[in-house]
Amino acid sequence: MAEQRIGQGKRRRKKRIRSRWDIILDILRALSDEGGVAKKTHVMQTAYLDWRNFQKHFNFLLEHGFIGEREEESEEGGKVYYLTEKGKNLLKGLWVVGEALRY
After folding, report:
1. Exposed/middle/buried for 50, CB within 10 Å: 0-12, 13-18, 19+?
2. What is the pTM of this model?
3. How far is residue 4's CA from residue 35's CA, in Å, rounded to a whole number?
4. CATH class of the domain defined by 20-101
5. What is the pLDDT of residues 53-87, one digit of tens each?
């Protein structure tokens, strides 16, 4: 009987740890992909974040004026969030830097 080496037989995907800027870019992209307006839960799911990390980064963007909030004008009500001009500029800037670093 041959011994199976540890890790042999199963392929493991290397987990890539996202930087703060990667996470912020994912949040901004999620809002942009939704036509610029979305609810928090949808943005969180689209950016693949847990609630704690999402709140931390989302609140930073909200407090610094990259994201705005307003009351929804539908039967559901509640708040929706959108990209401000400042947020759109940050999204463009992060995308350009990301592309430049990918060679």
Report:
1. exposed
2. 0.76
3. 51
4. mainly alpha
5. 999 999 999 999 999 999 877 667 789 999 999 99
